[in-house]
Amino acid sequence: MEQVDECQSPLFLATEVDGGTVHLFFSAPPESPTTRGFAGILHTGLDGLPVADVLAVPDDAPYRFGLAEAVSPLRLRGMVAMLSRIKRQVRAHAA
């Protein structure tokens, strides 16, 4: 698993591509509900999708979710970093 250093709480993620389908795995401590919530949003939205669909997600998607009013820019930066790592890992698996 790869650590996402931009997250305020320790978060690790890994991706697998099986038959062109993306599977996501996250690990974050229970005392990090916001980070776990962001990971859950990405997992729900991306896990099980074809590679092309995951790679087509706009890099700024977390800013489009309307969370900016509820969380700090630093928190959103962490979610953008999660998405970036996911896409980078998927590209590596697909190559």
UniProtKB/TrEMBL annotation:
InterPro entries: Fe-S_metab-assoc_dom. SUPFAM superfamilies: SufE/NifU. Residues 2-89 form the Fe-S metabolism associated domain. It holds the Pfam family SufE. Gene3D superfamilies: 3.90.1010.10. Belongs to the SufE family. This is Fe-S metabolism associated domain-containing protein. It comes from Angustibacter aerolatus. The lineage of its organism: Bacteria, Bacillati, Actinomycetota, Actinomycetes, Kineosporiales.
